[in-house]
Design a protein that fits this description.
alpha/beta, 3-stranded parallel beta sheet, two-stranded antiparallel sheet, 3 helices
Length: 98
């Protein structure tokens, strides 16, 4: 694990991860768009340190989200005004960390 990422996890109250169409991955005969693998790793790292309620995925485009992440908190950045409201509501729900 990167020391700097581990250190960041200990000093932040919440994390926003952007899943965008960065990588083309071949599945069978089709190319699918996925976020870079490090973003998925970083989501797991922050979720492990901060918890599910303090870690959010923001999705841009049609990038795939792994099926085992269904039900996690995320918002769709392609719907700008709705995403802004969802992010603000998420931030307001965060209670101060002790």
């Amino acid at each position: 694990m990167s020391e700097s990422l581990d250190n960041i996890c200990k000093h932040v109250d919440a994390a926003i991860l952007i899943f965008s169409e960065d990588n083309q991955v071949l599945f069978g005969n089709e190319f699918n768009l996925h976020p870079k693998p490090n973003v998925l790793y970083e989501y797991g790292l922050f979720k492990g340190h901060l918890g599910l309620d303090r870690t959010i995925i923001c999705r841009r485009g049609s990038s795939s989200i792994p099926s085992d992440l269904s039900g996690v908190i995320y918002c769709n950045l392609d719907r700008e005004y709705r995403a802004e409201r969802e992010l603000l509501a998420w931030l307001r729900r965060l209670s101060p960390r002790k």
